[in-house]
Amino acid sequence: MKIVVIGGSGLIGKGLVQNLNNLGHEAVAASPSLGVNSVTGEGLAAALAGAQVVVDVTNSPSFEEQAVLTFFDTSTKNLLAEAANAGMQHYIALSIVGTDRSPGNAYFNAKVSQEKLIQASTIPYTIVRATQFFEFAGTIAYTATEGQTVRLPSAAMQPIAAADVSAALAEYALAEPVNGIVDLAGPEKIGMDEFVRQSLKAVGDNREVVTDNEAGYFGGQVNDSALVPADDSKARIAPTRLADWLARS
């Protein structure tokens, strides 16, 4: 099977391409650095030619409200049009758990718009909403830092290893389309403040993480249900625990 990974040069994309190739499939990485640009359309038709499945793991270079919305709307419309022309059998997109539960978060709002475009298309699809990656702790800390203090809410998260996301996406790519949304999460719930506190400590970062439940998350307010699966019994739970990942990393 030929599977094209749009965003194949990124953290998730690289792992996904490797997993699929290891399973004996023809996984093709596509990204601007490889001559395929989903926003301008450059190289898109040629990349998708002859493929049965496309996996969209693109990421906006900007989190600014209008820029991120324009990126995902333009990229997704181009991808859907070319996928339809290519007779694609399955369109898979990576999204985020809780996109529809944090209205002040511009990035989440853009992902909701992306999801709606996919759902409205005629192509069979699976939208995989994943929780925040372990690898994302440093970025969360950076956006919440004032001097040597990191202010974060104690809102529950259920973070996941990027490798587990890539592995799950490979399985979805080889399965029948769900024509719906599936949730993918790590095995443990932890407060955002504690997640970042443990992550910084593990790399010798001496910044102090202060619990501040008035602090937002990328512009949006969050609570204990905003960033975790609505129903764990229906979510796919990945195996890697934070402590084990930190020890290995």
TrEMBL record:
UniProt xrefs under Pfam families: NAD_binding_10
Keywords noted in UniProt: NADP
Domain NAD(P)-binding: 42-171
Domain of life: Bacteria
InterPro entries for the chain: NAD(P)-bd_dom (IPR016040), NAD(P)-bd_dom_sf (IPR036291), NmrA-like_oxidored (IPR051164)
Name of the protein described by the UniProt record: NAD(P)H-binding protein
Species this chain originates from: Paenibacillus phytorum
